[in-house]
Amino acid sequence: PGLTVEEYQPGERGAQFELTLDIVERPEGRIDARFTYAAELFEAETIKRLSEHYLKVLEQLAECPQRCVGDITLLSVNEWEQLKNWGVNERRYANTEPVHRLIEHQVAVHPDSIALIFADTELSYAELNCRANRLAHRLIALGVKPETRVGIAVERSIEMIVGLLATLKAGGAYVPLDPDYPQDRLNYMAMDSGIELLLTQSHIRQKIPLLAECEILELDRLDLAKEPEHNPKINLHGEHLAYIIYTSGSTGKPKGVAVRHHALGHFIMSMLESPGMEAGNTLISVTAFSFDIAGLEIYLPLSTGARLVLASRTITQDGPKLVRLLKTYLPNVFQSTPAGWRVLLAAGWKGLQEGNHLSLKCLCGGEALSIDLVDQLRALNVELWNMYGPTETTIWSIIGKINQRVTTLGAPIAATRLFILDTQLNPVCCGMPGELYLGGAGLARGYHNKSGLTAQRFIADPFNEKGERLYRTGDLARWRSDGQIEYLGRLDHQIKIRGFRIELGEIEAQLLLQPQIREAVAVTKERLGSIRLVAYISCREGSTINTAELRDALAKSLPDYMIPSAIVILENLPLNANGKVERKLLPDPELIDMNLYEEPQGEVEEALAAIWKEVLGLHRVGRNDHFFELGGHSLSILQVQQKLQAMRRITLPLRAYFEHPLLREIAAMVQAQSAPIAEERNTLDEMAEIIDLLEN
Known about the structure:
Elements: E1 19-25, E2 31-37, H1 44-63, H2 77-87, E3 88-89, H3 99-109, E4 114-118, E5 121-124, H4 125-141, E6 149-153, H5 158-169, E7 173-176, H6 183-193, E8 197-200, E9 215-218, E10 241-247, E11 255-260, H7 261-276, E12 282-285, H8 294-302, E13 307-310, H9 313-316, H10 319-329, E14 333-336, H11 338-346, E15 361-365, H12 371-378, E16 383-388, E17 398-401, E18 411-412, E19 416-421, E20 434-440, E21 446-447, H13 451-457, E22 458-460, E23 469-479, E24 485-490, E25 494-497, E26 500-503, H14 504-512, E27 517-527, E28 530-539, H15 547-555, E29 566-569, H16 602-616, H17 634-648, H18 654-659, H19 663-695
Parallel strand pairs: 4-13, 6-7, 6-8, 8-9, 12-13, 12-14, 14-15, 15-16, 28-29
Antiparallel strand pairs: 1-2, 3-19, 4-5, 10-11, 11-21, 16-17, 17-18, 19-20, 20-23, 22-23, 23-24, 25-26, 27-28
Helix pairs in contact: 4-5, 10-11, 16-17, 16-19
């Protein structure tokens, strides 16, 4: 008696769990909900947004209890408008022209300015245009017109640039055919694209499969002196084809992405504005022209009156030589993949800045940008840009200037639509993961000769009433509260290694074509900040397989960057309850030693083993160990080369590592090269002694 009871509201207290929702029903029928959260894990704005979404769920279910969960809309009108403001760039350039016309305008304004530098050769804008025009007129005479596919199989050279420009000027669409690709792959690309004419060079013609009814021109032996020098007058529409670039395909064969003139021209106009480039600037190009991002390196400088310095293949594969080229030409813009930047840094590149002046724009794309690489590049006082975009949306679609310690993607470029959607094609809330979809001016036609795959990946835009399309990237991403996009990884088995897009299914399909193999799966493993390809196989009953021979068989159809660095043979692949391969249970390849270890013998083998251990992050390397089975790849070869050059002034050809991958074989080649150097040193010592005697 005499006691009264009243409600007591406790003050702020620490959260017992990461996130708790307490619901209390009041006597009058009202329901109160309270979120308690760990402040170190969630921002107040995130919880506020979550509570609003919870309220919307309750409202819609109370209004219609039969409503399906997938039909519930979480976003408010204001949130949807905010996502559109972040993801839709309405900026469009009027009267967008094909890139070769943009270059012709620069010829008229800067005829005597240097346009192209390769090795010891320099061409002015007028000279480059004259060469391209003469070849274009020859192509027109041979029947090249809009929609004609022209194969280009040349090494990095003046002829490569001239051939690309001439094909565009003639109205044709070029199809890059990298001479280093396996013949089977080149043959498929040539047949699938339907090239009607091939531009090549005499010394590599034999590498390219010959097609019936296909005209072949050897650019280094072609006499074009009598061809006209004026710009061809070809009527081109923005929807006409500019090029077809082949990327890895999950069916076991590469797929050709068909890109339109308007998409390419509009992209270059956007890049001229941001990140930006001006007349008188210099760009050094290092990317293989079969990789679509090479289009930026070629057309961006030539569309604004700048200099294009084309690095030779030898230089692009040698870090120290590339560093010297950068010091020689002091570029204003340089583009590379994260792996390429790491090679440059490992070679001792210290940036090109003078004082605190930002003299170099570093464009980094092709694979995910890691925070440690951001730290290394920003420490060099450069202007760092993160670039994102699949081949299907024309080179880059999202770019961002990195001003702080982050790895976000940035914002869409001009005339680009960007959405992050769930599996029902509904926009996801800020902070929630979803698939990244891209649309706008940069969208490709689709996949050449693959209408079914085109329909699957290029879908109708559910937010557009004009019948436009969106491309499903297969990338997982989410919006941050500041409007930046955070990349979270892949939704499928497509990966990127050193900038090259790879479908693991294509590797698996080629493995299963081998008669001895019963099961095969390809995965990626990460070590020392780099990603390596690993194949796991099981053999048919009564069959055995040699991993070196298997690698040789794969090399007939797959480029070297798609050859697994390790091949692990298992009795059976581990399966889950659904009968699918359980990738998490696949053993680490380092735990399986297929070779009997034998100590390195002699000074050269010991020195080489020490280099391999350092580059590959291993504790032990034997004389019979296989470079690629230890996890080596083309970029790690460059690191080995740099250390060999520093230690013994020796540089082996890159192909040597593929043809003789055992440590003892490489050591023998190093020993063979060391002898002449030692003899040269002895000769120099004797000459020095003679000079000393004469002087004294």
